[in-house]
Amino acid sequence: MATTLIIGDYAKSSWSLRAWLVLHAAGLEFETVQVALEEVTTRANILRYSPSGKVPALSMDGIVINDSLAISEAIAEAYPQARLWPTDARVRALARAATAEMHSGFTNLRTQMSFGLNLGDQPDTLSPDTEWEIQRVFQIWRGLRQAAGGGTFLCGEFGIVDAMYVPVVFRFRRYGVAIPSDLQGYVAAILDHAHVKQWLALAAQAQT
Ligand SMILES: N[C@@H](CCC(=O)N[C@@H](CS)C(=O)NCC(=O)O)C(=O)O
Q: Which residue positions in the chain have pLDDT lower than 70?
């Protein structure tokens, strides 16, 4: 079977977006199967492909890998030439920490500022915890960019850590969160990234 990524709706599935970006960053040719989320049949439909009942899942080399981070690691390992992690060990450790923090944390931000590709929405009054998490994201971005010492993205080239934070960029965009001036270039580069724009175009197409 061809390499196949099982994803959810473009406008709803931030975890699918992350894995999809990582596969593209590695230059992989792959097929996608899309399962509509938030329907009564969603769980049963995902289970046809993914034993966790969640998307994304990657069918590759005769196995199914569920979870965006596990998929990212598998792709980084299979395609080392894509340099999805920074080459410097210290920067790589920081990129992994930032990735893990996104993958397992930011629950207040994720709950209060739900994922969506639209603009101009008002969140409920942000809790102090959410406000703190927004500042923590900025701190992580700054720290990585300083440690990596330049480049367009967090650690130079677009990699797994950038893919992990793309949905946060969309959340900030959706709710009009002010981006500090020193990070505006990074956010602009993310929104101008070819595959980020492709995902937005696919989402727009799906809505017509
Ligand atoms: N930790 C998982 C989270 C996966 C996840 O929560 N996926 C959501 C869509 S973004 C899902 O499959 N929801 C379907 C459901 O719960 O029925 C990952 O990183 O892949």
A: 1
